[in-house]
Amino acid sequence: MPGYPRLTELFPPSLVAARMPRIGEWSPVPPAADRGAWEGIGNDTRDRVLRAAGPALGEPWPSLPASLFARFARDGDRWDYQAPAAARRERLGWAVLAAAMGPSSAEFLDEVMDGVWALCEETSWVLPAHDFRVLGSHGRKRGLLPDPECPTLDLGVSMTAVLLALADAIVGEELDRIDPLVRRRLRREVSTRVLRPYLQRDDWGWYDGSTAKLNNWNPWIHSELLLATALTEESDEVRSSVVSRIVQGLENYLAAQPDDGGCDEGPHYWWRAGASLFECLETLTSLLGTDAGVFGHPLIRAIARYPLATWIGDGWAVNFADGPARPREMGAAVLHRYGRRTDQPEVCAHARALRGGADAAIPETGGPFDLRRTVDALFDANWQTAAPAPFPLPVRSWLPDTQVLVTRAAAGAERGLLLAAKGGHNDESHNHNDVGTFIVALDARPLLIDAGVGTYRKETFGPERYGIWSMTSEYHNVPVVNGLGQPPGPGFRAAAVAHRCDGTTDELRCDLAAAYPPETGLTRWQRTFRLVREVDDGERIEIGDAWGCSAPPGSLALHLLAGGEVALVDGGGRAVVSPSAGRGLILDWNAVAFTAAVETIPLTDPAFTRVWGPAIHRLVLTARRPAAEGEHTLTVRPTGDQGVAGSNPAVPTV
User: What is the pLDDT of residue 644?
Assistant: First the structure.
C-alpha cells in the first residue's frame, strides 16, 4: 500500500524558514498596477465583471444585526445571517476585480475600501452554526453571539481572510494611495482574528481529528490560511511558523485518507477536500520553490481521479453522503491544474468537459462567487486556451478502501446502464445510514436514487440528524428487517466486501448484517450487485439478497427510492420507473414472495426540488411470509431493450 506522503519530511521547518519569501516577494496574482496582465483579459470576461460589480455602486452594504446571528441559537436558522454575510463578500470580490480591470477604477476602489472596512468592522467572521460559544462546545458557556475575545476559526473565518488577502495583493497599493490605514487594518485583523489564534490554540478538532472527524474543513481552511499568511503576515517568524504548522495539519489529513483516493463525503465535498488539498500543495510548492516530488505520490494522484470515478453524465454524479445528485461546478480549472501537475491527461479532460463552452474564468454556475478560484483561472494560460474535451467516463472505478463501485455499460458512453454501489460504514463524514445502498442510472439519468440532503439547519449536525428522513436507511435502497433500519456508528458496517469483474460482468459482494441492530436477529445479509453486459440477452443489473436470521422475522422489506414516476404492471412482479423524457427502467422481482406498494414523497425543500422536482417515490417490496432463511434477486433492465408488455425475464425465487 502506498501510504501517505510525509509532508513534514518533504517540507521540514528548516526548509520552510530558509525558503519562505518575505511579504511582497510572492503572489499568485498580478497586482492591478501590472496593466499588461489585467488588460490582457478578454472583453467578454471584463464585461461580465463590470456588469456584476456595477449595479451595487452607491447601494448600502447588507447589514448584519446581532439578532440575525442569534437566530441559529434561537430557532436553528443559519441562512438569515449567512445570506447577507455572503452577499457582502461576493460584492467585495467583484469590486476587487472591477477595480483591477475597469477602464475607470476610482469608484470601484472606493467600493473596495467600503467592503474591506465593513468586513473589518464585523464583530466576528465565524458562521453562526460553527461558533464555539453558540454551540456551547470546548468548555464555552452557551450564548447567542460570538465572543471576539476568543474567536472560533472556521470556514467563514478563513474564507474572509483569503478574500481580504487577495484584495490586498491585487489593489493594496491603490488603497495605500487613498489611505494606508485601510491596508494596515486589513492585515492586523487577519493576523489577530485568524493567524495568531491558529498558532496559539490547540482546540481546532479539524486540525488533528481530536474533537471532530478529519474532513474537508482541514484542507479547505488550510488552503486559505496558507494564502492569507503569504500575502498579509508581516512577521517573518510568524509566517514560517504558520506555514510549518499547516504542513503538519495537512499531514494529519493525508494520514486519514484511504489509499484509493476516495472521498467518503461524496463528490460535492471533494471540491473542498481533494481540490483544496491540491491548492494547498500548489501554493506551498510555489512559495518554497520546490515540489519535493509530492505530485508524483500515488495517494496525491489517486485523489485527483475521484471526480472521474463518481461522474454519471449530463450533470449528474454519484451522491452518496451529503450533497446533491446534480452538483454545481466549483472550479474546473483547479481540477485541470491538478491533472497537469500529476501528469494525468484524463483528469484534465474531465475538467475541460466540465467547463464545456463556458467562460474559462467565470462559468455561470449559480454557485457562490469565489475570488481565489476566479483569479487562479483568469491567469492560467493553459486553462484559458485548452480545447473542449469529452468526459472520459471510465468503464469501472473500484475504490477498495472506500468500498464504492461505479461501473457502466461501456467506457466513454453515457448511453446505457450505470450501477453505483457501496459498502462502507455508518460513521463516514457527512454520513447517511446507507451501508449496502446503490444507484442505478440509465442514459446518464439516475432513476433508482440517493435523494441527497436538504437545506442545512441546526438539526443537520446535531443529535437530531438521524431524525431527518433523508439520512435514514429507510429512505435508501437497503433492507428493513423487523421494522428496523440501520443505526449510525462505526460498528455498523459492511463485512466481507469483494469486487470481481470479467469480460461481461462487474460484481460487488458484501454482508450487511453487521450494519443492523441485534434486534433484527440477522446473522447474515449477503448482498450482491451485478452489472451484466451480454450481447444476446442485453445489459441488466441484478441486486441479489440472501439472508439468515436467528428466527423468522416479524417483517422484512426491500426499499427502493425512485427519481421518476413508478408504475406497477398488472400481474405483479414488475414496475416501470419512467423519467420525464427518454428510456426508463423495468424492475422485476418475485411476486409470489413479495407484495409491492408505491409511496409518493412530496418535496418542498429547494435543496431537493432543484434536483428532483416536486416529488420522488418509494417502492416498497414486503415479504409475504418472512422466513429465517431466504433469497431474492431484483432485476433491472432498460425499457428500450424490451417493451413493458414483453415476456417477463426469468424471476429468481425465494
Answer: 40
- Whether residue 587 contacts residue 576, with contact meaning beta carbons closer than 8 Å, is answered with yes
> 520 and 482 in contact (C-beta within 8 Å)?
yes
- Under a CB-based contact definition with an 8 Å cutoff, are residues 151 and 124 in contact? yes
Alpha-carbon distance values, 577 to 33, 504, 636 (Å): 59, 25, 10
Residues of the chain with pLDDT under 50: 1, 641-654
Instruction: Write down the pLDDT at residue 532.
Output: 97
Q: Other CB atoms closer than 10 Å to residue 55's CB: what's the count? A: 10
pTM of the model: 0.95
| CB burial of residue 439 (10 Å; 0-12, 13-18, 19+) | buried
What's the confidence (pLDDT) of residue 147?
96
Please state, as a whole number, how many other Cβ atoms lie within 10 Å of the Cβ of residue 447: 26
Measured distance CA(87)–CA(61) in Å, rounded: 9
Residues 306/260, Cβ–Cβ less than 8 Å: no
* Phi, psi angles (nearest 5°) of residue 491: -75, -15
In sequence order, the β-bridge partners of residue 635 are: 542, 588
Cell numbers 480549472: residue: 333
Write down the pLDDT at residue 323.
Answer: 87
Q: Kindly report each contact of residues 295-301 with a partner whose C-beta sits within 8 Å and lies 24 or more positions away, as own/partner.
A: 295/341, 295/342, 295/343, 296/342, 296/343, 297/2, 297/4, 297/5, 298/2, 298/259, 299/2, 299/3, 299/4, 299/5, 299/254, 299/257, 299/259, 299/261, 300/5, 300/342, 301/261, 301/342, 301/344
| Residue 643 confidence (pLDDT) | 39
Q: What gap in Å lies between CA 353 and CA 267, rounded to an integer?
A: 16
Measured CA to CA, the distance from residue 401 to residue 303 in angstroms comes to 13
Residues in contact with 166: Cβ distance below 8 Å, sequence separation at least 6, in sequence order: 29, 96, 227, 231, 371, 372, 375
- For 65, other C-beta atoms within 10 Å of its C-beta total 9
Which pLDDT belongs to residue 565? 97
Structural contact between residues 163 and 371, judged by C-beta atoms closer than 8 angstroms: yes
What is the widest separation between alpha-carbon atoms in the chain?
82
Instruction: Report the distance separating Cα 300 and Cα 303, nearest Å.
Output: 5
Residues with Cβ < 8 Å from 227, sequence gap 6 or more?
28, 162, 165, 166, 283, 372
Instruction: Yes or no: say if 323 and 266 are a contact pair by the CB < 8 Å rule.
Output: yes
